[in-house]
Structures are given as C-alpha cells and as structure tokens.
Automatic annotation (TrEMBL):
The keyword Chaperone applies. Residues 3-67 form the J domain. It comes from freshwater metagenome. This is Unannotated protein. InterPro entries: DnaJ, DnaJ_C, DnaJ_domain, DnaJ_domain_CS, HSP40/DnaJ_pept-bd, HSP_DnaJ_Cys-rich_dom, HSP_DnaJ_Cys-rich_dom_sf, J_dom_sf. One of its GO terms (biological process) is response to heat.
Length: 361
C-alpha cells in the first residue's frame, strides 16, 4: 500500500488546507474525464483514497498511529462524489449549447448639472457585438444549417473504454470534431465568420433619473454584448460623471451659490433677482446682512433620487467692500465713521457656528 502523504505530494505535518489544495491540483490532472490514460486513472484512485483518509481527522490520526487504513479501498463511484464536491460535477453529458451569454459592457456618460436636477433622456453610441443580420445567430451561411456531427453522432461526447485495477471503465470527453456541440457547421457565415455576431456601432436610449451624482453606476439589463452563437445579451453598466457648473455647486440634494452684495445694499437691505435653474427668482436681503449669512429657497435644489420633492437652493451672502472711492465718497464714509465712532475694531470670542457664518431661512 502506498503512503497517503506521498500520494498527495505533501509532508506529514501538512495542514487541512494544504491537503485540500494538493488533492484539487492532482484531481484536475488525473480525473478520467480529463486524462483517460490508464496509469492516470490508477493514480487518481490512489490520490482520492489518500484524500478520503487524510481529510478526516479521526481517520488521519488512526493512520498516523500505524493502524489499519480505516476506509480500506474505494471504487470510482466514491471518487466521482469527491470530485463533484470539489469542482461542481464532472464533464457535462450530452451536447452543449452553442449560444453563450454575451459579455457585460461599460460606458461613461457625462451630464450637466441641469440634467441631474430634472433627469434626462440621452442617446449614446457604443461599439459592441450585435446579432449578425446575415445568419441571425445560427453561425451558418444563408440557406444552410448545422448538421449532426458524424463522429459523436450528436452527443457531443466521445466515450472510451480503458482498463484499470477495477476492470474496464468507460470514460467520456468532449468531441474534438464538434467541440462538444453535437453539430458542425459545414458552411460558416461569411459576415460573422461563424460567430453569430459582429462588431458594430449602435445607439442606446438612456433614461437617466433625476438626482444621480458622480460615481453612481446604473445597470441596464440585457443591453450589453450579444453572446457567441447569438446568445443572450450581457448587461450594460453606465458610470455617471457630472460636470462642474460655473455658478452653482451641490451638497447632497441642495444647490449652493454665492451672492455678492454691495455694501450699501447690505446696510440698507434690498430686493434682488437671480437666475436659477427654475428661471428668475426674487430674494429679500435684510438690512444689516453679514457675509456668510445663508438664505434658503425651498424646493429649488436637486430632485431626490429615491423620494419625492427636491432639495433647497442655499445662497451664501458675500458683502463686497468697495476698494476704490472718489473723494466725495470717502468724505461720506468719514462722516459715517464720525457718527459711529464708538465702534472699534476688536477680537471677539467665536465658535464654529459663528465662524462658519450666520444662517437665515
């Protein structure tokens, strides 16, 4: 009887994970559906039996102590069960479908801020695999069709009888003539070269909802590439990139902007009109408004992506101090300073809230 550790090519202090990895590697090389050689099948029997013993802690302990092999010998049925456990089953039986699912596709779409606020329908062009119009995915030239493989007789598998310690064993492998499809195409389509699909540029209509933001990825089911043999489309993924706006910014679903207010309007108060994405709106500037004051206009922000309604428009006030004055204007400010001579420049105790600016609305 061969040594189980030698059969798997591992040391006697190998971990459970090392035992499993060693068996997986050898099983892929020696399984009868992969390697029909008689010597490979006999070795496969040995490594599988070795794994049965060493993967069981009690059986391994008994084996290491020099006891009898607790499992004895196993037949190919047991080997198949273990192989199926590791690899999800042996080779497929019967012909496989020529049609395969297509690959997913990824595109990048740039949006303007206005398109994000209200949502937009866009048409984009992509280069992708599409169904061949000449053969409609059959892969055969017009007027012809696939025929049954005369080697495997349509089964897609070739069976071989090999001798082993257990006697004659039947193994099967994909047919090399039809590659497991069970059919061959005598006259492939000239346009797609027997692929059932061609590369082409096509237009896709995107319905982009309001409220999306940069970094968001949208999934469009079955809008990706057509598969080999006219198989079903993969999915299309759309990465969203929102361009910066010259005036407005975004914080969550709120829009932000800065409004410069002349000093005299800040002192006396004013009523101003500004252009927004909803058209012209009027805002009231209270007398004595300070730089950093936030005016809030309800419902003029970005539409919520997963809820009804919209965010707000946040307007930050920036009082503009004149830097160029003529002599008459300077005299007026000196007169004003005389009236307010009790006011001095000084440091004040501050807080994060005050430092960030007063809020209104």
């Amino acid at each position: 009887m061969s040594d189980h550790y030698e059969a798997l090519g591992i040391s006697r202090d190998a971990s459970d994970d090392q035992i499993k990895k060693a068996y997986r590697k050898l099983a892929r090389e020696l399984h009868p559906d992969v390697n029909p050689a008689p010597e490979a099948q006999e070795r496969f029997k040995l490594v599988t039996h070795a794994y049965e013993v060493l993967s069981d802690s009690d059986a391994r302990r008994q084996y290491d102590m020099g006891g009898n092999d607790p499992f004895g010998s196993a037949g190919f049925g047991g080997f198949g069960d273990i192989f199926d456990t590791f690899f999800g089953g042996g080779s497929s039986r019967g012909p496989k479908s020529r049609a395969e699912r297509g690959q997913d596709a990824l595109i990048r779409v740039e949006l303007l801020l206005a398109e994000v606020i209200f949502g937009v329908n866009k048409s984009v062009e992509i280069d992708t695999a599409v169904l061949c119009e000449s053969c409609r995915g059959t892969c055969a030239r017009a007027g012809t069709s696939a025929v049954t493989c005369d080697i495997c007789r349509g089964s897609g598998q070739i069976q071989r009888q090999v001798r082993s310690l257990l006697g004659n064993v039947m193994t099967s492998a994909p047919c090399g003539t039809c590659r497991g499809y069970g059919q061959v195409i005598p006259e492939p389509c000239l346009d797609c070269r027997g692929q059932g699909r061609v590369r082409a540029r096509r237009t896709i209509d995107l319905n982009i909802p309001a409220g999306v933001e940069s970094g968001l990825r949208l999934q469009l089911a079955a809008q990706g590439e057509v598969g080999f043999g006219g198989g079903p489309n993969g999915d299309l993924y759309v990465d969203i990139v929102v361009k910066d706006h010259d005036v407005f910014g975004r914080q969550g679903d709120d829009l932000t902007c800065v409004l410069e207010v002349p000093l005299h309007d800040a002192v006396l108060g004013a009523r101003s009109k500004i252009e927004s994405f909803d058209g012209e709106i009027e805002i009231d500037i209270d007398p004595g408004v300070q730089t950093g004051t936030i005016l809030s206009v309800k419902g003029k922000g970005v539409t919520h992506l997963r809820a009804s309604g919209r965010g707000d428009l946040k307007i930050s006030i920036q009082v503009v101090t004149p830097s160029k004055l003529d002599s008459k204007q300077k005299e007026l400010f000196r007169a004003l300073a005389g009236f307010r001579k009790d006011e001095k420049i000084k440091l004040v105790t501050t807080s994060h809230g005050r430092f960030a600016g007063k809020r209104k609305g």
